[in-house]
Amino acid sequence: MMHFKIGLRLKRKKPCEKSSSMQRKKQLYWHSLFGTIQVIEQTFICVKTEKVFRPFSSSAQIHCRGYSLPLQRAITDFVADVSFGKIPEKLKEHYGITVPISSAQAITQNHAVKVSQKLASEIPDRYGVDRIITEMDGTMIPIVKTTPATDDVQIVDRRKNRELSWKKARISLVRIPTQKKRIIVGTVGTVDEAGNQLLHSAIRAGLGRNTKVHAIGDGASWIVNQVRRLFGERASYLIDFYHLCEYLAAAAPGNEWQRKNWLKQQKQEIKKNQVLKVLNNLSRGMEPDHIADKFAPVRVSSRSIKNRIEHLDYQGALDADLPIGSGEIESANRYVYNSKTFKTDRLLVDS
Q1: What is the signed CA dihedral for 113, 116, 117, 123, rounded to 10 degrees?
Q2: How many CB atoms lie within 10 A of CB 240?
Q3: C-alpha dihedral over 143, 149, 151, 154, to 10 degrees?
Q4: Looking at per-residue confidence, does 128 or 5 come out higher?
Q5: DSSP character for 232?
Q6: Residue ranges per domain, the chain?
Q7: Of all helices (H) and strands (E), which one includes residue 35?
């Protein structure tokens, strides 16, 4: 613990209308990048209201057992890279200090709430970048939820009243085609909240009135709806090429060699926007209607293509040197959520 004898000339400020009397000195300490700082503070009591006035705490904007802003910034920066459980190890390595995991979590969540309240909600009237690339995806993550205790046993051992479940988490990515820097955000909130985060990231990346948006995703309806809601006619949505090929691979006929050649040919046709030709090839092996979908891969593949036929302009994307796959968001999804849940000894807490 670090002790400092601090002498400050504070701006005189009357704590109340009438005079105040000196009460006593109190010990004040807070956590910083240099360790725990402790001072002895002179306090006063207001004669009229009988409330304690602490001039140093008020002027320095410090409260006992608090955390300095530089330390809070270091914690939130580390959380962007690793899970909460590894924050004490990182702080010990870089600054030689320790912070409880619960404190790191509370500080990060507090700043996250403040940031979410300042999300930009409208496209600025400015001349922005020519084009941005956006991707969105969702995944299920484990959640632990504790219910209020009803008896003494549950108060002692909270493991007996916790509920384990899964919750949908949504992540989005924005970048400029000519740059490698990416803006990645995520939420376990609603689809509109995920969309608002995507719009805010796009504005940070340089979205303006002239900017075109190249959106890629797996074809989930909530992603398509959010892209339309946020960007309107300025956006073009493209189904991830790998997801489309999964449907075609399941519908490929013949032996292994024949299936590989057939799939290769369909990929070439799809990239040339020859969708009707691919649908015609699928129709030759269409299963009867009475067969269930799980035993009818050709019908499922054909229906999937027909339902998304307006989002299959792969030739236009390739001619503009734009990606046709959502591998970036898939990788970000695995990194962000797996590194913060499955690779730690703690599940996410539903607060």
Answers
A1: 170
A2: 22
A3: 40
A4: 128
A5: G
A6: 2-67, 79-118, 121-239, 241-324
A7: strand 35-46
Take residue 235 and report the two structure tokens written for it: 């956006």
Euclidean distance between CA atoms 46 and 281, whole angstroms:
88
Asked if residue 144 has pLDDT above 90, the reply is no
198 has pLDDT over 90: yes
**pLDDT above 80 for 321:** yes
> Is 0.85 surpassed by the pTM of this model?
no
Q: What is the DSSP string of 142-203?
A: EEEEEPPP-SHHHHH-GGGGEEEEEEEEEEEEEE-TT---EEEEEESS-HHHHHHHHHHHHH
Share of the chain above pLDDT 90, in %: 48
CATH 3.30.420, domain 121-239, yes or no: yes
Alpha-helix runs per DSSP H in 179-296 = 191-205, 221-231, 241-251, 256-271, 275-283
Task: Provide the pLDDT confidence category of residue 20 given band limits of 50, 70 and 90.
Answer: low
24, 67, 224, 239, 310 from 333: Cα distances, Å: 55, 31, 18, 17, 26
Q: 29, 53 in Cβ contact below 8 A?
A: no
Pairing of strands 35-46, 2-3: parallel
| Crossing angle (nearest 10°) for helices 87-95 and 69-79 | 120
pLDDT score, position 268? 95
Q: Is the pLDDT of residue 351 over 80?
A: no
Q: Grade residue 349 by pLDDT with cuts at 50, 70 and 90.
A: very low
Nearest to 64 by CA among 76, 56, 72: 56
Q: Which residue has the higher pLDDT, 226 or 113?
A: 226
d(CA 168, CA 244): 23
